[in-house]
Amino acid sequence: MDKLAMVEKELKEALKKEYPEFKQGDIIKVYYKIMEKDKVRLHPVQGIIIKIQGAMHRKSFTLRRIAYGEAYEVTFPFYSPKIERIEMVKKGRRNPRRKRLYYLRDRVGKKATLA
Hints:
Layout: H1 3-14, E1 27-36, E2 39-53, E3 60-67, E4 70-77, E5 83-90
Antiparallel strand pairs: 1-2, 1-5, 2-3, 3-4
């Protein structure tokens, strides 16, 4: 076994996280920790995944959420210690043909989801 494969194997074991399998077009809810003075609270963000990028320890995903008529995108590192848990809300009905769903930025309302 070469050194690179050994290092990758060690990284995979060290970064073990129990998240559900998700892909572009799925709707998920991410609970992440926010520090407020002396206490920690969980802030949930629910939205559609428009992009998954990177590999191994550099993997990240971008979530698009529409709240009160304003859309915003949040990028989370996959192995961030600030992420408490991820819940699958809804699987995407259709399989998107693209890896990055940037065309959802132009859509408004129910058309902005693939579910």
